[in-house]
Hints:
The chain is mainly beta. 9% of the residues lie in helices and 29% in strands. The protein contains one helix and nine strands, in the order E-H-E-E-E-E-E-E-E-E. The protein has one helix spanning 19-28, and strands at 13-16, 32-34, 40-42, 50-55, 58-59, 62-63, 70-72, 75-76, 80-85. It has a three-stranded antiparallel β-sheet with strand order 1-9-4. Strands 2-3 form a two-stranded antiparallel ribbon. Strands 5-8 form a two-stranded antiparallel sheet. Strand 6 and strand 7 form a beta hairpin. The chain starts with 12 loop residues before the first strand and ends in a 22-residue tail after the last strand.
Amino acid sequence: MEEELLTPDIPTMFRFPDEETALAALEAANLITIDEYGDKKPIVSSHQHALSVIGVITRGGEWDLETEEVITPPEVLDGWHLNYRGPVPSGWEAYAVWPQNPVRVWL
């Protein structure tokens, strides 16, 4: 039996062109904090949201387990990805995606 994934009315998966664009969008939405080392880090959860940073997605590929050399490089999918639940920040609608075979889903 094949599992059916429901398409949510509100987007929960986003593909930004690159990490820089995604981090700028997170910062504009006040979803960035500064850690004890002074580095910017996404705020992954609050009472209003949950964020799952995926980043670059690859599919396939083959490696030699003994030498750790790449035999067949993986396919790198376009964009920099994240999943988000909560009120969709302004401007994020343009980056919403509804993939047929998502790599990571909310349970």
